[in-house]
Amino acid sequence: MTIEDEDPRRLWTGNFVLAIATNLCMSMVFYLLMTSMALYAVDRFGASDSAAGLASSAFLIGALVARIFAGKFLDFVGRRRMLALSLAVFVLMSALYLPVTDLVLLIAVRFVHGVAFGTGNTAITASVIRLIPSARRGEGIGYFGISSTLSTAAGPFLAVLLADRADYSALFWFSAACSLVGLVLALFLRLPERAPTAEERKRMWRWRPSDMVDPSALPIATLMLVAGFAYSGVLTFLGSYAAAAELPEATGGFFLVYAVVVLLARLVMGRIQDSRGDNAVVYPTLLSFALGLLLLGAAPNAPVVLVAGAFVGFGFGALLPSAQAIAVTEAPAHRVGTATSTFYLLLDAGTGLGPLLLGLLIPVAGFPGMYTVLAGVVLASTLLYHAVHGRKRYVRRFAA
């Protein structure tokens, strides 16, 4: 089905469904490998803790580099072409894990794999905005984000299952197959293209900061820098915290509850944002996120960890698409690609830098102290949001 054949007032079009499925395949590979790569580097190559961490984070570093350029060149290359080319490289890199026999080569594959992911994710995320009716943007972005939510729960679960029941080769074969499915789906996906203006073509090779980062998306992206920093404490250290507290089963339960709550929240919060405005969604999600982190800091048993998973899921999980809707709505139409890359650039930066800084805090404050500090940081971020966006008393009004 072409873009022209679809009713612009409908949300659930064929291309929208294909976009969700394609993003699900990409996100699944991300979480499959992110969860297992550090341990694989240790088991396969005898890597040190720092080298194993680099093998894991090299993917994210590559994605960060790609996002700087992908948004700028999205409309020059073509959205569908950029997505297809990046997914072709994504498939190739997924397959190259199998023959790699050297740690340095593994890190190189991880970096290029991350570049492909960052490019493809920017292309599809920026383009899907145009597939969503403007009056249902918050709702549509929430539904699109469900693909990432499902992979958040399924990816780590499958990674552990495949590595334990089979071996890492099975994990890499599954990742390659999932990547290939994403590429095939993308070939049937029709994305709305936008031709750059003559003035934009003149500025194509200009490298001013405003050409790489969209100023209108930067304020809300700054909030996500803080949120990503706080969530990195959960993503990176929850397993170690649970093991130290002799609650090893709590980690899996946390992310399962997290995924279920995020799924439910994204079914309704987008509609509330579209009808009641941004503040009606962002303030409650930030408070919920802070409460979930506070519960983790005080968690004496597995049930409390599960409850914390619900609050973090409603908090961070529902905040992400809501903030993204703000970023792309604030940006001019011709800057949506750059706004999307700006948003995820700061989110990824917070998520990537968090473990490095929090690793210095843990020896001093312990895991409970770290989560308590993060709860305070997220609570204080409500003031940041008020300063950069909330004080506008902004109620979304879309063009027809």
Question: How would you sum up this structure in a few lines?
Answer:
The chain is mostly helical.
What do you see in this structure?
This protein has 400 residues and is mostly helical. The protein folds into two domains: 193 residues, Up-down Bundle (Growth Hormone, Chain: A), CATH 1.20.1250; 185 residues, MFS general substrate transporter like domains (Growth Hormone, Chain: A), CATH 1.20.1250. Helix content is 80%, strand content 0%. The protein has 13 helices and no strands. Helix 3 runs antiparallel to helix 6, helix 9 crosses helix 13 and helix 11 packs across helix 13.
Bin the strand percentage. under 5%
> Considering the protein shown, what is the CATH homologous superfamily of the largest domain?
MFS general substrate transporter like domains
**How do the SSEs run, as a string of H and E?**
HHHHHHHHHHHHH
Main sheet attributes: strand count, strand direction, barrel closure: none
* CATH architecture annotation of the largest domain: Up-down Bundle
Number of strands: 0
- The CATH first-level class of the largest domain comes to Mainly Alpha
Mean pLDDT over all positions = 83
Structural class: mainly alpha
- Low-pLDDT segments, ≥5 res: 395-400
Stated plainly, the CATH topology of the largest domain is called: Growth Hormone, Chain: A
Distance between the termini: 23 Å
Total separate domains: 2
How much helicity do the residues have?
over 70%
The gyration radius over C-alpha positions equals 20 Å
Number of helices: 13
Envelope shape: globular
